Amino acid sequence: LKERLKGLKVDLYLDLHGHSKKEGIFLYGGGFAPGDERNADVRLFPRLCAMGSEDFNFSRCTFSVSQGKISTARLVAFLELGITR
After folding, report:
1. Nearest to 61 by CA among 38, 21, 30, 20
2. CA atoms of 29 and 74, how far apart (whole Å)
3. CA atoms within 13 A on the CB side of 5
4. What's this model's pTM, rounded to 2 decimal places?
5. Using 50, 70 and 90 to split pLDDT, how confident is the model at 53?
6. What's the CA gap between 10 and 62, in Å, rounded?
7. Potential cystine with 31: which of 53, 63, 76, 81 (Cβ 3.0-4.6 Å)?
8. Which sign, positive or negative, has the C-alpha torsion 19, 69, 13, 35?
């Protein structure tokens, strides 16, 4: 995948899935250290989703990098491929 993306810019990566115990629509994403200005870019798409849909719950979104999730597709895209949205 790294080779296929070489020289290209990916504007948005979505890893869509659902949860049987969590209601509403929300997203998981990576995150930088608290106070890092790049976090605004990470949260932009979810904010727009919340503005556009009553079903989308921004407060249920999670933006973190934890060791237990490091091999998930969303964090590989974030950490290894540099896709922040």
Report:
1. 30
2. 7
3. 12
4. 0.79
5. very high
6. 21
7. 63
8. positive
